[in-house]
Amino acid sequence: PPPTVYEAENATISQGVVESNHAGYTGTGFVNGDNIAGSYVEWTVNAAAAGTATLTLRYANGTTANRPMDVAGTLVDFPGTGAWTTWSTRSITVPLTAGANLIRATATTANGGPNLDHLAVTGP
Ligand code: GCU
């Protein structure tokens, strides 16, 4: 089955804003998290059954510095994409429980995270 897409602009946002000034996003915009460690986006992901899921985060980073985030306990690098209008993806696998799972992406450095467009979930 195709992935289920959860837009960042519809998620819970702590210390960030929804914006739409850089083209190429899906949905109605993206999240620009504050440039601090600890800013986050949290999605509620519904799994039909317990098992391993692939989480794919779509992002843009118009700087040349990596903007790492802790994504559900995994440290994920978000290197520069060349422009704020150039979007790329990073994927990890995580275990999910049946039903609702909170998936939080938290900036781990003072630069904050990248701009986040959406979370796409495949399986279980
Ligand atoms: C620029 C850009 C924002 C981005 C920010 C950042 O201001 O326009 O979209 O979030 O840089 O460095 O995080």
UniProtKB/TrEMBL annotation:
It comes from the Bacteria. This is Glycosyl hydrolase family 28 protein. The lineage of its organism: Bacteria, Bacillati, Actinomycetota, Actinomycetes, Streptosporangiales. Residues 4-122 form the CBM6 domain. The chain holds residues 648 to 771 of 771 of the full protein. Coiled coil: none annotated. Belongs to the glycosyl hydrolase 28 family.
